[in-house]
Structures are given as C-alpha cells and as structure tokens.
Amino acid sequence: MSLPLQIFLIVCVLVFFLMILRYLIKRKLNLKYTLIWLAAALVMLVIAIFPQIINFLCSLIGIQTPANAVFFFAIIFLFCIVMMLTAIVSHMNIRVYRNTQMQAILEKRVRELEKKLEEYESKE
C-alpha cells in the first residue's frame, strides 16, 4: 500500500471516529450501539496503519487478494450489524405490543371508574 493511500485511509478513519463521537455527544446514538462503531473504527485504523495484517489474514484464510479479504470482512461486519438491528427491532416490537395492551386495559379501567363516578354523583 502506498504511503499517500495509507495517510488518506488514516485521515478517513479519524474523521469517521470523530463523527461517531459527535453523534454520541449530541445523543443521536446510544452508547450501547456506538461501541460497535467505535470498535469498527479502531479495527479500520489498525489495518490502515499496519496493512500487512490484511496480507497475513489473506494467507491464513486462503483469500488471494487483500481487496477480496477487505470486502469479505466488510460483508460479515454488515451482516452482524443487520442481525443486531433486527434483534433490537424485534424487541421493540414486542414492547410496543405490550404497551398498547397495557394502555387499552388502563383506558378501560378509567372509563369504568368514570362511569361509577357519574352514577355516584347522580345519586346525590
């Protein structure tokens, strides 16, 4: 990897890292979900600084070119992100369903109490 490309990648990763921290500070991202992006930024920074790591992984796994290895690991990372987000959405869906049921039950109780209050007031 040429030095200008390596410097460009390091700058891009640092900008990405700062962007993640900015979202965290402005509370646009929750800390729990920010950690995986910070870990990804750290991995990208290490690979940008030490590109021989990707060559070692290529020879270890049996991938012929480093570009293919980068795409392979990126796709695996994206699958993990999608799986995590799917689990979060499923959990939130269950919570919304339960909250809707609870709200309906509470509204029914309020209506019944209002009806009893009206009956009590009409007797007086």
A few lines on this structure:
The chain has helices spanning 3-25, 31-49, 52-61, 66-123. It is an all-alpha fold and 124 residues long.
Task: Indicate the topology.
Blueprint: H1 3-25, H2 31-49, H3 52-61, H4 66-123
Report the principal-axis shape.
elongated
Number of strands: 0
Helix run count = 4
* Share of β-strand residues: under 5%
Could you tell me the radius of gyration in angstroms? 27 Å
If you had to describe this structure to a student in words, what would you say it looks like?
Helices cover 89% and strands 0% of the residues. It is mostly helical and 124 residues long. The chain is elongated.
Jot down its keywords.
124 residues; 0% strand
